[in-house]
Fold:
Amino acid sequence: MSGTQLVELILNGLITGSIYALVGSGIALVYGTTRVLNFAHGELMMLPGYGFLMLAVTLGWPVLLSAIATLVLVMVLGGLIQRVTIAPLLNREDWAFQVVAATIGLSIFLQSAAQLIWGEQFQGVPYFFSGVAVIGEVRMPWQRIAILLIALLVMGLCGLVLYRTQIGRIIRATAQDAEAALAVGIPSGRVHTMVFAISAGLAGTAAILLSPLVTVSPWMGASYLLKGFAVVILGGLGSFGGAVAAGFLLGLIESFGVAFVSSEWSSVISFIFLIAVIWARPEGLFAGRGQ
Amino acid sequence: MLDVFGRRPYLVLLVLALLLLAVPFLPLDDYILHILTLFLIFAVFATGWNLTLGILGLKTLGHHAFFAIGAYASALVSHYFGVSPWLTVWIGAIAASIAGIVIGFPILRIRSMPHVAIVTLAFAEIVRLVFSNLKEITRGELGFWGIPPFNPIEIGGTTIRFGLGNSFGSFAVAAVMFVAIHLLLLVLLRSRAGLTFLAIRDAEAAAESLGVRLAAWKLFAFGISAAVVGLSGAVYAHYVLILTPSSVAGPEMLISLLAMIIVGGVGRFFGPLYGALLLTVTSELLRDFGDYRMLLYGALIIVFVFAAPAGIAGLKPSLRRKPHQAASEPAEAV
Amino acid sequence: MLRLEDVSVHYGATRVLWDVSMEVGAGEIVAIMGPNGSGKSTVLKAAMGLKKPSSGVVTLDGEALQNRPATVRPQRGMSIVLERRRLFPRMSVEENIMLGGYARKAAEARETCKWVLDLLPEIKPHLNATAGKLSGGQQQMVAIARGLMANPRVLLMDEPFLGLSPAMVKTVCSIMQMINERGVAILFNEQNAKLSFSMSHRGYLLESGRVVLSGSGEEMLDHPEVKRVYLGIREAAA
Structure:
């Protein structure tokens, strides 16, 4: 394999990985803080995908404005979903499974609704970064590099908020000991809603970044949900940083795997890797780098 | 135990068996028999899954993989090697059971529900992708057709035929499987094994402290559960005579079955039956409104989780002692 | 000041507290003593709102709080030092303490922090350490500091001496006295009768979720019933 090919493999792996990291870190954040597994997280990707499509293409708004508006809307939606479909279940004895079931129901409901509203045709958003970057012999469209850079930026921002701001401390306190957080006066209910909103923002970012490359469809999120879960487990359940690292790792594994095996097996490789890691090290690869 | 089985489970099963026996004598058209056959097959599937989900308490989301494995194993062996489906369905069940034990191992050590849920989901996805990618053998998403139906049986002077279109024969096979499997499971679960499963579900640590070898029992339950589901898958394959990976191992199957179990009642023995009946009927009625089917399933799951978490089985007015009466007996915390 | 009247608590169908009534007056140190499983922890959690009573009333200065969430307590002047410290393990000592002042305005919190650190100078060198890595005794002091940051008028302490060396026990004891000298009332749990009743103004003896005895610290120390339970503990340990 030539040097150029190697660099391209790595770059592609990191780019794919940044989407996995965005999706997975959102799920990890929610799980780490609230112990809730949100199976409708994929729809928090799909809906902003459509939202961005509507604003940027149908209404013709400028890309940046559409992106910001979409993110704000999906964050509100995320908070709403938490309040309406998850919070009421948390008092029940079997809440963990019931939340899983309810969010699965919600997920399929939203996918079907999207299909009925927008139809099955896959729709595209035009590239917002044009041109190709050339570094030595490596050629990569700017649109794809932008995914990596913007994802890093957004996740970095999240990390900054988590570790350097009061809000971040409140979130981490709730994640590390929910009862002690209550005891000092931190309103855990509101923290849960906020964390959901943040995770929606991360998923929305992924959707917006993907939309020119992958085309928007009702099942757009579903294909990333399971990968997102895999990333969360690999990273050590509940760890934001762990999920980010695991996301990039998974992207690299898939990228290199595809070099040796045809692409239709890439997901199989990822999932076998997941099961193998669980078998050997149930606490995840990066456990210990908790929130 | 009363919660799980109701008051006279054998009686209920007997009544169901008699009802099924009466069906061929009723003036029902083939389409209704078809729906009933599907209901019976999915009821067995749902009950098999409920064995793990509701009774053992292991929140797995990948049992449709066993359905697919049972279906494909039986279909492939009978198609490519000419073995009679009467034999291959057992191969399908065994294949599914082995797969169950294989995936059971990594899950065993995991105590956290999210891990179990996600790993089993990943497993199901692997199964789907494998069947989809091995196109030379399974023809992938194009569909594997040409599955032989069950060989005809001669009784007296009549020949009973099977497979789609031969509604009486297919119904009969499904009905026999339905009654037999439920009977076997009922016997199993009313025995010490069943009590052990429930003990593991309700208080794993306590069960372990009493000497229950958790790993062995979990594997046992998993294996049986997978075998039952695999059997239903195999029978399904030899009924509809065509398979695609997405239809049997994809998310739609997962959602349909999950809806059946939740609507019917997780953790209750007869719960899945109610769910399977309701949803199979609804699904056929909505056949023309394909897109609305999944919309409805999603809505049903949400509604039932919120309003009736114990499912239909839990709604039945019961003559048993109500839970809050127990509080008046002094039960002191140790 | 703080009153529990006929408080009962259920965990599911199991009843854990049976019509418990207790009082803490302003500036008092009150001890709850009892063996394991007597419900001591639950009393504090019910007072703090971390566990909702199934019946009964919890009032602070006349305001009924039993239906309010735990989060209003710090604002009203009541905070808790939880059993086994329960610091936020992966956050620094300083972050833990600052979070204790969550319910207060920033300026007030800074003021409080000053006197808290003066009261507990042993914490100062560890401000940047990760809380989970400290020793039991150090963690206990950080937990107390965190509890004090809400500027409480009554401080609840759940088994503050658990797992501490005898030297550390003495230290925590004197810290509690110092806190009390500032006018803060303390309601705490302890299994050791001598320790709990010798340092408190009043005490309660809890058995199987019921108050079986109450009185001043001295009365409780001399009481034959206390000696029975205390001896019971001693016999079991022997």
Summary: DSSP finds nine helices and ten strands in chain C. The mean pLDDT of chain C is 87. The CA atoms of residues 93 and 125 of chain C lie 10 Å apart. The beta strands of chain C are 2-11, 14-24, 29-33, 55-60, 63-64, 78-81, 154-157, 185-190, 202-207, 210-216.
